[in-house]
Amino acid sequence: MAMAQAEIGSVPVWDRAAEMMPPEERAALQLGRMRRLLERLHRTSSFYRQALDARGIKPQDLKSLDDVRHLPFTTKKDVVDHYPFGLLTVPLQQAVRLHASSGTTGKPVVSFYTPHDLDVWAECCARALVSAGIGRGDIVQNTHGYGLFTGGLGMHFGAEKVGALTIPISTGLTERQVMFMQDLGVTALVVTPSYALVIAEKIEEMGIDRSQLKLRVSIGGAEPSTEEMREKIEAKLGVKHYDVYGLLEIMGPGVAVECVCQEGLHVQEDHVYAEIINPETGQVLPPGEKGELVLTTLTKEGTPMLRYRTGDLTYFYEGPCPCGRTTVRIHKIIGRADDMVVVKGINVFPSQVESVILRHKELEPQYQLIVDRKNHLDTLEVEVEASEEFWGHGEAAREHMQKVLEKELQDVLVVHAKVTVLAPKTLPRIEAGKARRVIDRRQL
Ligand code: DLL
Fold it and tell me: The whole model's pTM is what?
């Protein structure tokens, strides 16, 4: 692992050898690591041994990466069912950290890290930050939550590793966030897209002239966001905003990240093997075809994952990235299969609604979808906030906008949505954690 930041032309890269490795060399590395993983899982994990034996697969059967498609999947349910120690593949004394996230029901999902796992994770977060142009000399304010959530500590150790002054401020207390940004000359924010907008609003509310801030870049993820949302963040905060993706089961943030080209997220392929599958059939899909992202940890010791079904929908980009990295790129996460609401039998993703809303400068990037059932029929309402200026234009203008949006949404969603344009700052702001865009009253 290279520990120094290299500059490739004007593109910052943390580990040139890993990130720009010739594809054939990387494929050989992945195959070797995949084989070793299978051997280790077969030897140390009764869960994986049973899953492999049930398919009659022996670790030595893996002849090429093409054979990975025959290996069994691992699901969130498997992880929850084996809570807390069932998927640990090292003696407990070798684990030095645990993170957790809420499972869909009852027990949480836990992940264990050995010192080696923490090194790899910090390395991946360092690559992510440098990829966004953050490094020594930067002052990084990390607003991701510290604690069991991986966002805070994950990005923290990456930021320290690249030599940035790192402020572990965590989420919430937005006024204090802005004060720190102003007083310390913060240059980079680590922030979820939704919280970036809350901070931008607070800066405006406090009457701070943005040009007085040194902020130039923000990076963060943990929740889906569209290209239009990025444009809003960049305009409102006066930054370049970069998307970073990850999940607890694999490591946390740092699994994939955008580079300065902002055309897809580069997967850290020396540590993670990525596939896209048809979620219904489990068949592996080629580049360009949308499906569920499936990830295998190639180097994780504590709780490795074999073909973990992330539930996240995306597709692979074709062809090389202009930045020169040779790693495979995924499109920004389009949504989660479980984020999707089915309205009158039609699949609706919040990201589709977000794209339509953010085409209009009269509207704020604050919205929610409310699904209900009236007289046995599903209904969909979209509430969205007007900008201060547009709100001043009066009721007739709002009604016209509602009609325009209803028409545009109908075209995109193929299902009717009633739109209400609300006064600015009426929808709840999430200061900690992930944005919640869908309220499904049908389950109440
Ligand atoms: O959210 C890790 C993370 C922290 C990533 C900070 C980026 C920044 P979990 O809490 O386990 O881990 O949630 C993982 O969040 O399966 C996706 O559905 C969603 N997610 C994470 N990053 C993105 C992103 C962290 N950039 C789940 N875009 C994942 C869209 C994301 N969704």
Answer: 0.90
